[in-house]
Amino acid sequence: MKTTWSVLAVSLGLISQSAVAKLGESNGFSGEIALNAAYASKTSNLTNTDDEFRKYTGGQQEDSGALVLPLGSLQYTFGSQSTHQLFLGTSRADIAVGTVALEAGYKHLFSDRTKVSISFLPTILEGKVWQDPYTMDARQTTKENGNAYRLQIDNIAGSLFSLDLAYGKRELDEERSGTGVPILSPQEAQLLNRNADILYGKFKMMLPVNRQVLLYPALIYTQQDADGNAMKHNTYGAELSSFMSFGNHKLALTLGYLKRDYDASNPLFDQTRKDDEWKAFLAYEYPGIFYSNDVSLVAFAGAANSDSNIDFYDEKDWITAVGLSWKF
């Protein structure tokens, strides 16, 4: 459940992400291991690929269940002033196309507090999808693959502004969208091809309210250059994150809105697709349990709702979880 992993990472990232540019307390290895018990639900006609959903009956297809979600990261900090870092693990920030995968890269802290990170995400778009989501026959699954490359520039020239850029490529082993629909010609089915190059950009700034509250407004843009013109789209969005600390309690709330405009008319539904998506995440951390400052109780909840002018593409998902995090 890729969206579930995205909710999880954003929530944890909001709790623990430092507002000050800093690579590590000292040189050497550091990291974190988190284990969470969660319950999640996703309603989607495209990505719920369990056997019970092979036959599309025209209704919304909802999949829910309990999950055990492990996360981890490992960093090695080095240099005379701890200004270099190699890192490996699951990302804590909003990444490429809103999902979480293994990330490996290098980070450098400059003297003016600018922090530059370059990373490679080899599994960010991996998953299982339908070969042809639109056929009325029993649907077959295929593997979705993709790599992504990411550049982050935080505290640009010592300022409160940051930039996050990424490029990703989505490739399906067997892309057959529309080929099982008799009323579509091969040329019309090609308009539904999902293989794509994806560009992502996020510009944000930090707004300190007081010593306990920080705000991070952000603007987001994504371009999906799909092989099928009806699947090409531009996404425009905005996000507001609030970080709050009250004694030993840490809270984070993120609200986001995305608008997707597609390039060409969908040959199946005879209209050009438009989506409006709302997201909300609430996270809580209480460090210092079990008499250790390195162990924290974490809990979070998140929900997302994508409303399309074509009902077939409507999606909803939510997650709630509680777990422990250990830093070393």
Largest sheet: 14 strands, antiparallel, barrel
Helix content estimate: under 10%
Shape: globular
What is the mean pLDDT?
Answer: 87
Strands of the largest sheet, in order across it? 1-2-3-4-5-8-9-10-12-13-14-15-16-17
Percent of residues in beta strands: over 45%
Specify the structural class: mainly beta
Number of domains: 1
- The SSE order reads HEEEEEEEEEHEEEEEEEE
CATH T-level topology: Porin
Identify the CATH class. Answer: Mainly Beta
Number of helices: 2
Distance between the termini: 28 Å
What's the alpha carbon Rg, rounded to whole Å? 21 Å
Regarding quaternary structure, what we see is: single chain
Record field, number of beta strands: 17
Protein name: DUF2860 domain-containing protein
Organism: Vibrio thalassae
InterPro entries: DUF2860
Keywords: Signal
List the helices and strands and how they pair.
Blueprint: H1 2-16, E1 28-43, E2 62-78, E3 84-90, E4 102-109, E5 115-121, E6 127-130, E7 141-145, E8 148-154, E9 161-172, H2 186-190, E10 196-205, E11 207-208, E12 213-226, E13 233-246, E14 249-266, E15 271-287, E16 295-308, E17 315-327
Antiparallel strand pairs: 1-2, 1-17, 2-3, 3-4, 4-5, 5-8, 6-7, 7-9, 8-9, 9-10, 10-12, 11-12, 12-13, 13-14, 14-15, 15-16, 16-17
Can you put this structure into words, describing what you see?
The protein is mainly β. The chain has one domain (2-327): Porin. Helices cover 6% and strands 56% of the residues. It is built from two helices and 17 strands. The protein has helices at residues 2-16, 186-190, and strands at 28-43, 62-78, 84-90, 102-109, 115-121, 127-130, 141-145, 148-154, 161-172, 196-205, 207-208, 213-226, 233-246, 249-266, 271-287, 295-308, 315-327. It has a 14-stranded antiparallel barrel with strand order 1-2-3-4-5-8-9-10-12-13-14-15-16-17. The longest helix has 15 residues, at 2-16. The radius of gyration is 21 Å and the shape is globular. Residues 1-21 and 94-99 have low confidence and may be disordered.
